[in-house]
């Protein structure tokens, strides 16, 4: 099963990833995905200081403001909202991403992982997150491959081979739970083993290594910088999730292999939640880096012919063509009608690559990202007649009578800033804050509008639509026909066409 | 065997824990009311009968547990509307997009037609009278039932009577009705609604959704052509799978490709009604038990699943497609301009001609010479056939 994925890689040509004209150079990062950006916002990832202990002491009660009635409800609601708001900026350029990925997950199994600064221990928690990572990785990259390597006692252990079956990797990782972390880690050994595992990977796929690194040292047999240079020339990208503190060699490693961008690829965790976020952010297919783009001289992308077989269920068992096993059911090759028992595979009779179309469809939201919705200001909210969220029906906060439907309102929002330090509302600000809260209950309308269909949504639906659904409920509920209708009121046409419809059904 | 279709990633163990307590469940019914589906020459079941059956079903769901909830959505060919709970009357963003059938003549025609679709009697009131909510039964009816029934019938009536002929006409040919309905829109709204009802934004990750409340979607579908909505429907399917919301499909009329995949991926039930007149019985036996009960029941299984996809270029349903290896878009034929229409990658012309070449006939030994000659001639005439093979070797 594990090697069955490789089948349609054979048909590949030397180099396939192409320069994306669409890619904006706005952010320096090679992979400015939503999640990395979110984590960037939260922590010290900007190199210029900003460590959590360097910040002024941050007391949660400082940021809470009572409203006129002495109630905290609005202040709390606003805090919740501003937290959600932080997550609201999404990648909307359809990037060229490496969708067929090959990734090696490197786990630190050294004695540093026995530390109990996370519950129950670094070791157990990182194994637990590794399992989640595997699940999430295959969820987002169903036709990609993964392998797991452990660092223990100064050498690298192969935990599971590069393969496409999540269950295999998970069993292998679960089996580690009984072991104890021991010895020192060796980054070089692990990287060399990962390099070996990725050596035969076809060039149209990405080659990536993700390291969970708990130790502050690496015990290497040779010069690790040579290994880093080899990785760079072989275009293997390395991401590191540090559990303790920043390590110079890890920074160098990420910097060299990611085109100088270590900010989005090397993260040191702040807490358990942040650990999970950093790790799972590696599940999103990476955008092509500059070196990869410039390395592509010739255009050698190709079209693969694939079959989408349908599943059949038979009353009597018959042999599958791939393993000659007796089975009741399987998939029929759409070209030659041969029965195979599992997908993806190559048809044993005609050589057609057979794949489930659902595998391909999982990545489509990367191709066609949903546009960001913009926040509706009070005057606009007043002008619009919508009183509830189009998606979930939740009624919007009523428009305060003081708002005029023209002009723009000043908007002061109690917000937590990106560095994590809180913009506490000082005494001078207090008067203005209460002033705006008289004008608008929270300062923001809590309405978000899709630029395409102009429907208004609540913040929860905004998050849901961009993070889970990847559809705009409003756009999907508007047919192109009726959009056209709105543009030109075609009452004449309707009257003229009416008889054509009425005749047929009435006779029934 | 099923392990490959991706549904295996969803952990199954958590269901067993839920068995302990009886959690309330939310049922979202999506009713496809596209005129093209119900208005065929001899509909196997009229919309009126279907609505009556659905209301019986909805009431039974409410009767199972006093905290059970229900929502009903109508997917029309041009719009989606909440039938229950009804949207506040002040909201009119959707009104404006519904297509303004202000023209008196047009709406009259539509009304008569809708009556014709639903009942033989013709006029709107019949729809209301026929429903279980009105008449003497109303007085002695459990209040919740009546509220649901009346709201659904009222809203559906309003929706259908407002439909103008132009709303459902095809853009290219105004005399033919579109054969589609906004299924992807209805599913998107249903999922947003479920997201709010089952914990809202706090559980967007999809992990704790099941803890709060169980939800499922029942789609009663009549239209057959959904190829244009392939990507949005697939997005809905994966979102539902992530949220552990099964999508049940009750299919009247011709089979629809992607809905089978929806039921299969999300762990829902797909039934194609052989005898649509017995809709009530189908609903009560196959769709009423919720996810927990279903593990103990023998459910109707799908005999086979159509896993075909729709191409991005013509929205055609294909079983063999050409896939761009950068963005994984599906095309039904190699693009004429040799570049991917989605990611604008330029394909290798050599590889491309490899795909388009015709099969070469292998001749028995005796004719070898002849065949060679023929091949030479082919090469000369610049047929794409054997040339690339020679070039590759
Ligand atoms: Zn087999
Ligand atoms: Zn075949
Ligand atoms: Zn909402
Ligand atoms: Zn929209
Ligand atoms: Zn096409
Ligand atoms: Zn492409």
What can you tell me about this protein's structure?
Chain A: This is General transcription and DNA repair factor IIH. Chain A: Residues 1-43, 403-442 are annotated as: Disordered. Chain A: Residues 448-470 form the C2H2-type domain. The complex is a heterodimer of chains A (508) and B (393). With 508 residues, chain A is α/β, with parallel strands linked by helices. Chain A has 4 domains: 3-54; 86-286, 3-Layer(aba) Sandwich (Rossmann fold); 306-365, Wheat Germ Agglutinin (Isolectin 2), domain 1 (2-Layer Sandwich); 374-497, no CATH class. Chain A contains 17 helices and 17 strands. A 6-stranded mixed beta sheet of chain A has the order 3-2-1-4-5-6, sandwiched between helices. Chain A has a 3-stranded mixed beta sheet with strand order 7-14-13, with no helix packed on it. In chain A, strand 11 (330-332) and strand 12 (339-340) form a beta hairpin. In chain A, helix 3 (122-140) packs antiparallel against helix 4, helix 3 (122-140) packs parallel to helix 8 and helix 5 packs parallel to helix 6 (224-233). Chain A is globular and about 70 Å long. Chain B has 393 residues and is of the alpha/beta class. Helices cover 40% and strands 12% of the residues of chain B. Chain B has 16 helices and 10 strands. Chain B has helices at residues 14-18, 35-38, 47-64, 93-97, 104-118, 125-130, 143-162, 183-197, 209-212, 230-243, 257-266, 279-287, 291-294, 349-356, 368-380, 387-392, and strands at residues 25-32, 69-75, 80-84, 214-221, 247-251, 270-272, 309-310, 317-318, 320-324, 330-331. The interface between A and B is large, with 118 and 122 residues. Strand 7 of chain A pairs antiparallel with strand 9 of chain B. The complex binds zinc ion (6 copies). One zinc ion binds at residues 311, 313-314, 316, 331-332 of chain B.
